[in-house]
Write a structure and sequence with these properties.
Layout (H helix, E strand, L loop, with lengths): L4 E6 L2 E6 L10 H16 L5 E6 L10 H4 L4 H19 L5 E5 L2 E3 L1 H8 L2 E5 L3 E3 L13 H9 L1 H10 L2 E3 H6 L5 E3 L1 H16 L3 H14 L4 H12 L6 H11 L10
The chain binds acetoacetyl-coenzyme A (CAA).
Acetoacetyl-coenzyme A binds next to helix 2, strand 5 and helix 4.
Amino acid sequence: MDKFVSCAKQDRVVTITISRPNALNALSVSVCEQLTETMQAIIADETVHAVIIQGEGENFIAGADISSMATANVLEAEAYARLVGRCLQTVSECPVPVIASIRGYALGGGMELALACDLRLAGQSAKLGFPEINLGIIPGAGGTQRLPRVTGTAKAMELILLGQIIDAQTALSMGLLNAVYLDDILTAKTTELAAKIAAKPLQAVKKVKQAVQAALNLDIRQGLAYEISCLIPLFSTYDQKEGMAAFVEKRKPIFIGK
Ligand code: CAA
């Protein structure tokens, strides 16, 4: 079986690379299956503190695989859309932060994968958008749901309705990206960000992700109660005791992730 998804672990950071450069890394059935399996293995590995997702070569991902949909009947299209959706949901449910590192095209399902990540860094070559409307469809892997949560509905409507492709600076100004760098230093900057997160106390990092994700689905009272429910268990962790002791003793904390 061809391998489209590879995974490298360095220290506590895993970098996933989607490798189908001849199709601009489009999310074929095999890519989705392999990415889901890879994410499941990462989720089960408690030594992982942060994850990076990137595309091989010049591009992130140019979307769902149009050749998987072009001649699909309704049932086949539904099965494929659900497969892509499940794959991206697995990314979103990874308990540690996932960073999308975007060069070149991040379109349709590729942009949806980036939105399923927690942080998005881009190179200046990045070109982002939702061209689905031009294919007679709409985003089907979270674009209509995750994009308005990031940009607000007006910008989301504009991007999805027009199917326009925007550059990295425009995406940055819309809050779609955390930062934009020269392409040459994107990998180094992404690694640096992942390493910074990986050095933080792991249990607190996981709770940040849980609490911030919950903020999108809960009203403010429920959200504040949920925040407290995330905070309190941290007082039973080694790293909380170490972090506060180090502050009091005016030294650097040594976190162990527990
Ligand atoms: N699916 C399958 N193959 C794709 C692809 C995709 N999404 N995007 C690009 N490719 C393939 C092309 O067919 C081409 O293959 P061949 O060399 O075998 O012909 C190869 O990748 C290179 O692409 P181009 O020759 O088109 O490269 P370009 O530089 O001229 O154009 C592009 C780049 C503007 C990104 C153009 O490829 C394009 O418009 N791609 C489609 C983008 C798109 O519509 N994405 C949304 C898909 S639908 C979706 O994602 C639904 C969802 O929400 C789940």
